[in-house]
Amino acid sequence: MLVAFGAGNVPQRGWPEAIGRATQQGVQVVVNTQCVDGAVELGRYEGSAAAQAQGALSAGPMTIEASLTKLMFLLGQGLSAEALRARFGEDLAGELLP
User: Which residue in 44, 38, 25 sits closest to 10, CA to CA?
Assistant: First the structure.
């Protein structure tokens, strides 16, 4: 879980490469925001586009707590990486806030 700035922006020096190394090793990297209002929109700005290009998942409108709990639940299901990524974008228990 990576708690980023604003709409999911990460620093450009070193972070995109670190995300890429982690995802290449099968680690699911989820980008969330520290902002109370709003949502992560990977690709909206350069800082978040770099994370997206390296395979990071967007937490979208989920709170940090909801996205962390959801990730732990899905990891415990033994899903393939592709299936986990697909399920992460689905509303499983009302966690995708409007």
Answer: 44
